Amino acid sequence: MIEFQDVSKIYPNGTQALNRVNLRVEDGEFVFIVGASGAGKSTFLKLITCEERPTEGEIIVGEQKLSELRRGEVPYLRRMMGMVFQDFRLINKMTVYENVAFAMHVVGASSREIRRRVPYILGLVNLQDKARCHPRELSGGEQQRVGLARALVNNPKLLIADEPTGNVDPALSFEIVDLLSEINKRGTTVLMVTHEHSLVKKFRRRVVEIRSGSVVADSCTWEVAR
Amino acid sequence: MIRSFRYLLKEGVRNIWSNRTMSLASVGVLISCLLLTGAAVLFSMNINAAMKAIEGTNSVKVYMKEGLPVLSAVKVGAEIKKLDNIASCKFIPKDDALERVMGMLGEKDAALLNGMTGKDNPLPDAYQVSFRDLSKYKATVAKIQQIDGVGSVNDYSDIAAKLTKLDRIVTTGGFWIILLLSLVSLFIISNTIRVTMFSRRLEINIMKSVGATNWFVRVPFIVEGVAIGLISGAVSSGILHLLYSQLTRTLTSIVRFSPIEIGAVSGRLTAAFLLAGCLFGALGGMISIGKYLKKEGGDIVDW
Question: Which CATH number applies to A2-80+156-225: 3.40.50.300, 3.40.50.2020, 3.40.50.1110, 3.40.50.2300?
Answer without folding.
Answer: 3.40.50.300
